[in-house]
Design a protein that fits this description.
mainly alpha; Growth Hormone, Chain: A; 80% helix; 0% strand; globular; MFS_DHA3_Transporter; MFS
Length: 423
């Protein structure tokens, strides 16, 4: 049963189903998870940031080892293991509700995430074929969004019972999903990855060095790597502590009658809608001439708004102004993300594209691991507003880095990847 289901379902329908359940369960857990960690477990700011840093470090370290299962044994099995570990992690954190349980839960979830990451996309691509997978991914994004909204509402309802309940129910949902996939998830087209194409630590090292050489030649690539690193340095403390900033500094009587579960559910719903609108504005309403010829201008403007939003959360004394800054930051990221991705890709040739894109993600992760604990400790020793203000200052140079390359035209290199690696 581990490698073959009892009854094979249609692959595309299975993909939509697992996307819906996982998106629902993630929203169910994370809408109120940080409020749960603060209120129920009693974590201080440093501990909350440390939990997130442990998660980032775990995913970074286990991406290659867990990929062996997807490459050599079964992508289906890798996905099932990942969802099972994710569910167990959430049940442990919500059920035991201690700092040690939160750390353990995030380690287990980080490992589970790496089992799913890449394997799920590779599985559905194998099953439906590369030429047919694009509309499946597009519909999957739509399914994910709808299920996430339902999960946010579910978190608010279950949070009225107790803040740990949506975390535990989310874990149970992931375990049930893993069992269901074990019974019905098909895998008809899997072939083990050839040795030369497998991800290894030596391969990652070669990718990293090749990416550095590309960045040295391309000012835009270099600038965007710096932007990702600075964003990572600043983001962990904000992502973990903005809710605590609201709880400690403001009362919430005007939001859903003062109940924190409903209040943060409403905040999450508004934030999702605002970010969706910003994403639509970026992809449909912004003139294509600006996106294609002057991408640095909207990306720099969005990054500047993000920096100001973080500073606003730190220093403003009005609840609604602070909430506006929280939503503005999310909208800025949704607005600039697609433009930045397209801009970076235009400055890469096919031989080095995957290498540099992977390195860009690694720069963000390294930034989060390096920046999270110091800023979390600063928040515990001084205050959350001070740590957030420092985070905004740390990220501010990203705006200058973007503007410094606003007039650099795309110049993809024709050099093969091996030439770049061996230089």
């Amino acid at each position: 049963m581990l490698l073959r289901p009892l009854r094979e379902a249609d692959a595309t329908r299975t993909y939509y189903g697992l996307t819906a359940v996982s998106a629902f369960a993630f929203a169910l857990c994370f809408t109120l998870n940080l409020v749960f960690q603060y209120r129920v477990i009693g974590l201080d700011p440093f501990q909350m940031v440390l939990v997130g840093t442990v998660l980032e470090a775990t995913t970074f370290l286990f991406e290659v080892p867990t990929g062996v299962v997807a490459d050599l044994v079964s992508r289906r099995l890798s996905v099932i293991i990942g969802f099972l570990l994710t569910g167990l992690a959430f049940v442990v954190e919500g059920g035991i509700a201690t700092f040690a349980a939160a750390l353990l839960g995030n380690v287990v979830w980080g490992i589970g995430y790496t089992f799913v990451s890449g394997a799920l996309q590779a599985w559905i691509t194998d099953e439906v074929g590369p030429e047919h997978v694009s509309p499946v991914f597009t519909r999957g994004v739509q399914v994910d969004l709808v299920a996430s909204l339902v999960g946010i509402l579910g978190a608010g309802a279950l949070g009225l019972v107790a803040l740990r309940v949506p975390v535990i129910v989310s874990g149970v949902a992931f375990v049930a999903l893993a069992v269901a996939l074990l019974l019905v998830m098909p895998e008809r087209s899997f072939e083990p990855t050839p040795r030369g194409d497998r991800e290894t630590f030596a391969h990652l090292r070669a990718q990293f060095l090749a990416g550095l050489r590309v960045a040295r030649r391309r000012p835009v690539v270099r600038a965007l790597l710096v932007v990702s690193l600075l964003a990572g340095l600043a983001s962990e403390v904000f992502d973990r502590l903005w809710r605590v900033r609201l709880i400690e500094s403001f009362s919430l009587p005007d939001l859903a009658g003062g109940d924190e579960a409903l209040a943060f559910t409403a905040i999450a719903l508004v934030g999702t809608v605002v970010s969706l609108g910003a994403s639509l504005a970026s992809s449909r309403w912004l003139p294509r001439r600006i996106v294609e010829q002057h991408p640095a201008i909207p990306v720099a403007a969005g990054t500047a708004l993000e920096v100001m939003a973080v500073a606003g959360v730190a220093v403003l004394g009005s609840l609604w102004l602070v909430l506006g800054c929280v939503w503005l930051r999310g909208a800025s990221q949704a607005f600039t993300g697609p433009i930045e991705d397209a801009w970076l890709n235009r400055h890469l040739d096919p031989a080095t594209r995957a290498t540099v894109l992977s390195m860009n993600g690694q720069a963000d992760a390294i930034g989060q691991v390096a920046g999270g604990p110091p800023l979390g400790a600063l928040a515990s020793r001084t205050s959350i507003p001070v740590a957030l203000l420092v985070a905004s200052v740390v990220q501010a140079p990203a705006v200058a880095a973007l503007l410094s390359v606003r007039n650099v035209p795309p110049r993809p290199s024709d050099e093969p990847l091996e030439a770049v690696r061996q230089e």
